[in-house]
Amino acid sequence: MKKIIWVIVSSVAVVFLMYHFSVQSQNNRLENALAVQYSNQLTSASEKLTKLTESVDQTMLFTDKEALEQPLDDVWRISSDIRTSISSLPISSETSTVWMNYLNRLGNGAAQVKNGEVPIEEWQKNMVSTRENLQALSDQWAFTNKDGGNKDYIVTAFVQNKLDKNGEKNWKSLGNSVKAYTESDFPMTASETDQQKKKDLQHIKDSEITEDEAKEQFVKLFPEFKDAKIHITESSQDAPYPFYHIEFHEGIRIGYADLTKKGGHILSFLLERPFEKTTITVQQMKDKSAEYMKTLGFTDTEMVEYRENSVAWHLSFARKDENNDALIYADGIQLKIAKDNGELLGLNAMEYIQKEKIGKQEIVPLDNVGLFSSNFYIEEERLAYVENKQLEQRLAYQVLAKNDTIGTYKIYIDTENHEILHADKLP
Q: Is the pTM of this model over 0.90?
């Protein structure tokens, strides 16, 4: 009898342990899912806060009513979006209520300024402290999401706020929350930029060259590889335009280059080799890059940016319009130069080869005093071509406006209708 009772008790214990293990495994999986979901929500909220602060900064940049419309709209929209993010997280109701009220007042204030109900001067004065408050909120998010979204901390800080009055986890409710957080509220739409088709180089009037002529052109552009082993193939039929692909090998150097079949214009160049520990100066880098651009025939360009990593300098150039010296960023060239000796390691001229079609446009003088806030001063102004929302190339004033507290903005203003095309905060 005792043996039978022992068997029954053991069986029940095994079943109980298996059930407990199954439930615990299910709970652990749900905890992991919640931790990931809440961490993603926090990261998203932090990104939105950064965008909101940038939009607030832009409302302090201008005094012109039309120039203020977009940043004020952004403040209203993003503040509303962040309120939704906060409400979807299981944080304390007190914290949630305080910040949702604050963001609601911020969004409503932006709408009032846009509608002319509040003077822009009063708004800009209040925004000085608002920027600090938004930064404080951002710091709170960063602390809450510390350790890169550590699972144990996220579960402790957030999942525990989902406990019922008896302290028991309502796993069904949590599971529904995960599903709700995961599903998207809006269907995905195709990007408008996907509608822009590839160009076919119709503006190049040169005749096609042969493989032998392509090899001659390559050696002419890069005489240091005249003795290299060279192999040439043609591009595939689905390429955006016909070109010759050149592979070359000389000693420790291996590289590739692409030349257009029409005229043999250089599209790209890439060189691979070991690097030394020496480093050339910035001025030497600039001199080397100017020499390469001249040799390769890109004399109508100007350097617009450069940066570095451990082995190379990366430079960006833009073509200059022959009529007004305006920078055409869409016709860009990128160079890669070795830090040890300044050797050319890479070239990308595909954008330059495609060449944007630029139309005539009136240049109406810009009233900086009426456009910008008095807290900003103009460091530089020049002309440049950039895209508007309709993906059209528009001639614009490229203005560097600086505020000692907020920072420096690069702003592009249409020369004809003075529309603000882009306003980017510089690092």
A: no
